[in-house]
Amino acid sequence: MRGRRLRVKVDNDRCERYAICQMEAPDLFELSPDGRLFYTKRPEEDQVEQAAAAARCCPMQAIKVDRV
C-alpha cells in the first residue's frame, strides 16, 4: 500500500468536538473557537502516524483513515 495517498474522513454526525484529534494531530485537525472542525483530508505520507493516532483516540470513533 505504500505510495498510495491517505484519506481522512470525519463523520460530523458522530463528532462531539472534544478536540482530542487536535491534541493528537495538531497539524491535521483544528477545532475553531466557534466549534467548527477543520481537518486535512489528504495528509502527506509522513503524517500517517498522526492521522492514525487521532482516529484511534477519538472517543466517538468519528475519524476514519484509509488509503486510496
From TrEMBL:
- Keywords of this entry: 3Fe-4S, Electron transport, Iron, Iron-sulfur, Metal-binding, Transport
What is an example of a GO molecular function annotated in this UniProt entry? Answer: metal ion binding
Q: Does the keyword Electron transport apply?
A: yes
Which cofactors are required for activity? [3Fe-4S] cluster
Q: Nucleotidyltransferase: present as a keyword of the record?
A: no
What's the name of the protein? Answer: Ferredoxin
Which organism was this protein described from?
Kibdelosporangium phytohabitans
Q: What is the lineage of its organism?
A: Bacteria, Bacillati, Actinomycetota, Actinomycetes, Pseudonocardiales
